[in-house]
Amino acid sequence: MTPIFYLLAAVTLAGGLAAVLLKHLVHSALAVTVAFAGLALLFLQLDAQFAGFAQILVYIGAVAILIVFAILLTRGSDLPKDGVFSKTWFLGLLIAAAVFAVLGWAVLASVSAIPQQNTLPSVTVHDIGNALVGRYVLPLEILALLLTAATIGAVIVAMHEKVRSR
Amino acid sequence: MQVQLYQFNLASIGTPPQAWIVRWLWLIPAVPMVAAGIIALLKQAQKRLSSALAISSLSFSLLLSLIAFIHTLSERKLFLYFGLDPMVHNTVNFAWFHFGATRVDLGWVLDPLAAIMLVMVSFVGLLIFIYSVGYMAHDENFTRFFCFLSLFAGAMLGVVISNSLLLLFMCWEIVGLTSYLLIGFWYQKPSAAAAAKKAFITTRVGDIFFFLGIVWLFSSSGTLLFYNRGFGSIEPLSLAILSTQHAGLGLSAAGAIALLIFAGAAGKSGQLPLHVWLPDAMEGPTPVSALIHAATMVAAGVYLVARVYPLMSAGAPPGGTTVALTVVTWVGAATAVFAALIAVAQNDIKRILAYSTVSQLGYMMAGLGMGGVAVGMFHLITHAFFKALLFLGAGSVIHGCHEEQDIRRMGGLKVDMPLTFITYTIGMLALCGFPIFFSGFWSKDGILEAAQHSAAIKGPFYLLVFGALLTAFYMTRQVCYVFLGYWRGRETAHESPKIMTTPLAILAFFAMALGLIGTPAWPWFHAILEGRAATFSWHGFAEPGLGMLMLTSSLVVFLGLGLGWRLYGNKSPKPEEPDALEKSVPWLWGPLRDRLYVDEFYDVTVIAFYRWWARVADWLDRRVWGGIVALVAWIFALWAQLNRLLDVNWVDGGFDKTCEEISEGGGLLASIESGRVQNYLRILAVAVVALVVILFWSSRP
Amino acid sequence: MTTPLAGYLLVAALLFAIGLGGALVRRNAILVLIGIELMLNAANLNLIAFWRYGPHPEALTGLMFGIFSIAIAAAEAAVGLGLVIAIYRHTNTAELDKIDRMKG
Amino acid sequence: MVATLGSANSFFVNPLFSNFDQIFVLLRDWLVGFLPAGLQPAAGVLLGVIAIVCVFPGLFALTTVFERKGLGRIQNRLGPNRVGPYGLFQPIADGIKSLTKEDIVPLSANAVVHFLAPLALVVTVFMGFAVLPMGRNMVLVDMDSGLLFFFAMGAATELSVFMAGWSSRNKYSLLGAMRAVAQMISYEVVLLLSSVSVVMITGSLSLPKIVAAQNTYSGILPHWYIFTPWGLAGFLMYAIAATAETNRSPFDLPEGESELVAGYHTEYSGFKFALFFLGEYLAMFSISGLGTTLFLGGWSAPLSFLQFIPSWFWFFGKVMMSIFVFIWMRGTLPRLRQDQLMNFAWKFVLPYTLLNLLVTALWRFMGEGWQRWVVCTIILAAAYIFMGRLGMRGEHFGRRSYRYAE
User: Fold this and answer.
1) What gap in Å lies between CA B64 and CA B675, rounded to an integer?
2) Chains that contact A by 3+ CB pairs under 8 Å?
3) Cβ of B672 and C104 within 8 Å?
4) Domain count, chain A
C-alpha cells in the first residue's frame, strides 16, 4: 500500500468516472484512455511488465483509436438534444451501487482467508513466450482463430452493403 | 525443433539422423500435389496463374531432385573412398497405423535408382509442362489440364520415392486415375471417353494381380517396406525366407509374388496381353501422350520391376536366372516384336509412336529380365527423352497441320517446319539406335548384349534383333511420309511457337548426349545403379563379342533404314493410294493394319462374356429382385395409409391444442423482451447480485 | 484494508461498478461499450493481482489469463464497434433506447 | 526495471579505446559517485534522461538545417545561407521566432485537448528513447520487453495526433488526423511484424540483447540481420513502414499541403507548432534508431577491424545515415494517393511481411548450411516477383491525358 498505488488507483478511477460522466463522447473516449493508462501502470506496479505494455499497445494504441473512429463515424461528437443519460438512470445507478456493495463485501469478507505471498515472482518475457507456445498453445491458436474471425466479421458487419441492382 | 524431430524418429522407428534432403524428400511429390489442389480451386480464366503454379511447383521439385541426385553422388563418392558398399538406401519410415500387433509402415527412400528416376521425371515433366502452355493455349479447360498434370507429376514422383509397396500402390493408383482423366480430357469426343475407360479397366486387370501380390507379400514377410535397415521385404533376410517357401507349380513364394507384381507392371507398361489400351490412349492431348504414355507413367511398370528386382531374382543360382525373370524376358521380347510389327502398318502419327512405345517397353522388360536393373533402367531413361521428344515433335506437327493426324495427308514438312524436322529426325535416329552418336544405340546395345550373354536361351535375342530391324523400318516410313515428298494436306502447315520448339531442342540435345554416360568404355550409369566404381577405359570395347555385336546391330539398323527408304523414300503417294508394303505383300498388310486382331479377340471372348453376364444380371434385376421390391413397397404403402388415418383423427387434435397453449405462454414471456439492450444488462446485473448474495448467505456457518 | 491484494481487488470492484453504471445509465451505444471495456479491464486487474499475490506465481496462470483477455478485448471491441456502426447505418442513431426492433 | 550501472567491461585490451568507447558511461558513474549510495541508481537514470532530452533536440536542430540544405541541393537552389556560417544558426533563429510568436487558439477549439495534444506527442515520443541502446552499455533502462515498450509508446502517439486534429475544430485538421491515424495503424502492423522476425531469431525482446546477437563477425564481416534474406526483406518492409509511420514523403498525405493545408497541425502556431515539429523529427530519430538496432547491428562496427572506433559513434552514424535517406526520399519521390497507400499497405507490404515471418521460421528451422540461403532467397524473390505482378495486374497506365480549364 504505497502512495504510488493510491495515486495510480485514483487516476484510474477518476479516468473511469470521467469517461462515464462526461457529456461529450470524445472527452469520454479520452478519459477512458486515461483509465487504461492508469491500469497499465497498475499492472507494472504488480510486476506484470509484459501485460502492462500489452495493455498500452492494445488499449491505447488500438481500442481507443477504434472507439474514436466509431464516434466520428456515428456522428457521436455532436451533443444529443435530449440528454446523455437514459430515463432510468437512477435504477442503473442503484444496480451499479448494489453490484459494488456485493463485490466489496465479498472481497473484504474473504480476502483475509487467502494465503498471500509477497515475494517478487521472477517472470521474464522468455517464460511467458515459452508458456504461450507450450502449455497455452491451444488457447493461443484458438485466440488467433478468434481474432481472425473477429476481424473479418467486424469488416463484413461494418461494410457498406452494396446495392444489389441485378 | 530439429532436435525434437530427430528424437521422435529415433524413438519411434529407429532411423539414424539423415541428411537434410532425405528428411525433406517428401516435398518433391507433395509440392506439385499441393499445387494441383490450389489449381483445382482456381477459376478457368486464370490461365497464367495456374500454369505458373504448375511450372514453378515442378521446378521446385526438379531443384530438390537435383539436390537429391547430387547428394546421392557425393555420398557414393564418399563411400567408395572409404571402400564401403556404395549401394546406400537412405530411408525415412514411419508407422501409418497399427491394428493389434501388426503395424503398417510407410516411408520414402533415396537411393541411386530413385534419384535418377526423380531427375528424369521432373526434368522431362517440366519440359512437357512448358510445352503444354503453348499446345493447350486455346483450350478452354486449360486450368483443369494443368491441375491434372500437376497431380500426375506429384503422384509419379511419389511412386518413385516410395519405400513401401503400399505407398507405391497408392501413388500408382493416383497415377492411373490421372491417366484416365487426361486420356478422357476431351470427354466430349466419344472415342476419347471410350479410350479412357479402356485404359482404366485394362490397367485395373493388372492392378488386381498387383494387389494380390502385395497382400501375399505382407502376409508372408510382415512388412511392405522395401528397405528398413535389414528388415525390409526385399532385403536378404526376408528374401531368404521367401525364396524357400513353395507356392506350387515349381515356384517359390518370392517368384509367385514377383510374377503377380509383374502383372501389375505389365498392365501399366502395356506388355503383351494388356497392351491394348496404350494405342487408344492417344486420344488424349499430345503433351499427355508424351508425358504419361511415353516418358513417365508407362515407365512406372519398368521402374516397379526394377524396384522389386531383388524379389524377382531371389533364389537364382549363380549366373543363372529365375522363373520370374524368364517370364519377364519372354513377355518383354514378345511384346517388342509384336508391337513393332503392328506399328509398321499404322497411319496415325501418334498411334505409330504408341506402338513403338509398347515395343520399346518390351525392350526394357527384356533388358531387366536378362541384364539386370541397370540395363533396363538405362534404356528407360534414354527412351524417356527421345520418346518424349518424338511425341512432342508429333504434337508440333499436328499443331502445325491444323489437327491432322493421318500421315498420308502430310508430307514435305521439312521445309515448313525445319526446327521440328531436325529435332524429330534426331529423336527418330535415337529410337532406331543409329550408331555412336545417339543414346538409343548404346542403351539398346546394352540390352542386346545382355540377351546374347544370357546363357540359357537365345530366343529373345533373335526376337529383339528382329524388333530393332522393324523399328528402323517403321520410323523411316513415318519420317518419309511426314517430312519428305510434297504437301498433301488441305491448308498449309506452319512452324510452332517458341514455347513448343524450345523443349524440343532441349530434349533433342539430351537424346544425343545421354548415350555418353552408358557406353561400354565408361559405364557410369550402370556403375551407379550397381554400386561399383565407374572407371574410364577404352578396354570396355574390347570385351569378347562386343565389337561383333555392335557391328551386327548397326547393320540391322542400316538394313531397316535402307528398306524403309527403298519403299517410301521421297515418293509421296496419294492418300487414297495403297501403301507400298501393301502392294508388295498384301497378305501380311491386312492383319498388321488391323493390329493382329487382338481387340477383336478380346471382343469375342472377354467382352462378349461380360455382355452375356450383364444381360443375365439385368434379367435377374428386373424380374426377380424387382418383383420382391415391388411387393415390399406395396405392403408399406398399405401400412402408411393406416397411419395417416390415425394421425388425422387422433394425434392432430391434441397437438393443435398444445401448440395454442405454448404460443399463449410465449406471448406472456415475450413481454420481458423489450428489445432494449440495457434492460437485459440490468436484469443480468440484478441476477448476479442476487446469486452472489445467495451464495455467501448459504455458505455462512 | 490490511493487504495490498485487497486494495487491488477493491479498486477493481469499484472500476467494475463504474463501468457497469456507465453501461446502464448512458444512452449512447459507444459509451455502453466503453463501460463494458472498463468492466473487462477491472476483471483483468483482478486476474493479475491474484497472480501476483496468489500462491503459485510461477505457474503464470493469472498472467496468461490477463494477456489472453487483453487480446480478446481487442476482438470484442472491433466486433462491438462494427456492430454499432452497422446499426447506425440502419437506424441512423446510436441511442440505445431508440433501438428496440427486437421487441418480443 | 534496473538501470545498468555499467562498469567498463574489458572487451578491449587497450584501455584508451575502452575508455573512449565508454566515455559517457564513465562520466555518468563519476558524477553519480558524489551522491550517497541509496540515490545512485535514480540519479544515474536521471542523468541519462537529461542527456537524451538535451542531445536529441540538438540533433533535431542540426537536422532541420541539414534537411533544408539537402533539399535545396536536390532542387538546385541554395537553402538557408543567411544566419551564421553557411546558415548553420538558422535553427536558433527559428527557435526564437517560434517562442516569441503569438499562441493562437481558435475560438471554437476544445482548449484543454488542444493544449494537451502536442505535449502528449512529445512526451510519448521521448519515452521511446528509453530502451534504445545507443552504444555499448549505453541504454537508459534495459527492459526485458524493451521492444514491446517501444511499440507501446509508438501506439500512444496516434492518440495525440487525433487529439490535435479533433480539438482544432477544423475540417482540414480532422481529415488530416484521420488520415494520419489510419495510415499509422496500417503501417504499425507491418512495423511490428517485421520486427517480430528479428525477435524470432534472437529469442529476446530486449534491444541490447538483439544488438549483442548481431555483434559477432565471421572474418571481417558482421552478422547483421540485414545480411540475411529474411533480414533484408524485413528491413525493406520496416523501412517502408517506418517512412509511413513518421508521415514522411512519399507517405506524407496527412500533411499534404495541396489538399489539407498542413494536416492535423493546421491550427497550431508558435511554440505548440514547434513541439509538433520536434515530435515529428524525434519520431524519425527513434524509429531510425530502432531500425538500426534491429537490422543494422545497432552500435556494432561494420567491419571487425573498425571496432576501435567507439560504439556510440557507429550508432549515431547509422541513425544519421537513415535520416539522410529520409531526406533524400523526400526530395525525390512524389506523394502517393490515399487509396494507393492503403492498398500498398494491406495488399503488398502486409502479406509480404507475413510471408517473411514464415521464411524466418524456415530459416531458423533448417539449421546451419547453405541450403537455407538458397531456399529462403528463392522463396522471397519468387514471392516478390509474383506479388509484384499480381499487384500490377489491371494497372495499365494509359497515356496521360490533360484537361485544361476552359
Assistant:
1) 63
2) B, C, D
3) yes
4) 2
